Amino acid sequence: LMDTVPGLAHLDEHMIFGGSEKYSNFSFIRNFGGNKGFIFNGYTNQINQVYFSSVYYNFKYDKVIDIFLDGFKCPLYSEKVIYFI
Hints:
Layout: H1 8-16, H2 26-33, E1 38-44, E2 49-55, H3 61-73, H4 79-84
Antiparallel strand pairs: 1-2
């Protein structure tokens, strides 16, 4: 099983979308997308951790991809994200 400490993979799922070195403002990430142009989401089960993004037609794809991938490359794992969950 991938989640040997119950809930740790799910916490990681949330932390990936909680900001990165380049996009450190958690509120910016939530507000930039929201109902304006994209959605980040994911789910975790016993053997999978899945991340995905939906981008509305004609939105800033390059910006969304940059924010999405930077969360994986340089996540902040900020305490404020833990309190938001």
